[in-house]
Amino acid sequence: KAGVTQTPRYLIKTRGQQVTLSCSPISGHRSVSWYQQTPGQGLQFLFEYFSETQRNKGNFPGRFSGRQFSNSRSEMNVSTLELGDSALYLCASSELYRASEQYFGPGTRLTVT
Amino acid sequence: DAKTTQPNSMESNEEEPVHLPCNHSTISGTDYIHWYRQLPSQGPEYVIHGLTSNVNNRMASLAIAEDRKSSTLILHRATLRDAAVYYCILRDDGRDDKIIFGKGTRLHILP
User: Which end of chain A is more exposed for a tag (fewer CB within 10 A), N or C?
Assistant: First the structure.
């Protein structure tokens, strides 16, 4: 099976712009989670989707949003980008909601200038 | 969320066993102990998880103390490819739908 794929892998945006990141889970996986990784804060949970519904959300402002499509693919959107949003954004998929094993993609490196 | 304590970094020689400790004195009865690792320039990778009994899989072994207040991830024969940051995580698999990552242990493998 193909692993979790994320597009694009690298992105440079300007402060104030918005960005959309995409995640394709492993075939058959229905749950998708998003994480932000920065050198200062480490890995932080953003949100999780299962069956097109957001099940849980981390402690991030409303500028961060996401959605999941009927084929389980997911997108996350960040509006009004700030310099502090520069990070590696990781997507993880699992077969079921609250599954023990999550499989991570390689991430999208976002740089905000 | 229950917390874990891990050493910031460890070193080990190639082809020798590695024991990575994790303390979790506030663990609750329904918390599972999970280990993930993150190789350079990659996303985290699931390693192993357990509740009370010791667990083995093709990647590693997990030894859990009888009182469950600590655990040890054992890599039986370290290779250079095992150099990574190892995260010990507590998660109530019946309730938690997210993984709370700590700082982890950076493992250096010496050739």
Answer: N
Total Cβ atoms within 10 A of residue A88: 17
Question: Using CA atoms in the order B7, B11, B16, B22, what is the torsion angle rounded to 10 degrees?
Answer: 0
Contacts of B22 (CB under 8 A, 6+ apart): B4, B5, B6, B33, B35, B70, B71, B72, B73, B88
Whether residues B93 and A100 touch (CB distance < 8 A) is answered with: yes
Residue-averaged pLDDT of chain A? 94
- Chain B interface test: which of A35, A38, A96, A102 (most B C-beta within 10 Å): A102
| Interchain contact A107–B (C-beta under 8 A) | yes
pLDDT digits (tens, 9 = 90+) for B34-93: 999 999 989 999 999 999 989 999 999 999 999 999 999 999 999 999 999 999 998 876
- pLDDT tier, A15 (very low <50, low <70, confident <90, very high otherwise): very high
**Cβ contacts of B49 on chain A, cutoff 8 Å:** 100-101
Mean pLDDT of A43-68: 93
Position B2 pLDDT exceeds 70: no
The burial of B43, by beta-carbon neighbours within 10 Å (0-12 exposed, 13-18 middle, 19 or more buried), is given as: buried
Cβ(A19)–Cβ(A12) below 8 Å: no
Closest among A84, A102, A112 to B44, alpha carbons compared:
A102
pLDDT given for residue A100 in this prediction? 72
Look up residue B96 and give its two tokens: 């938690």
CA distance B29 to A53: 29
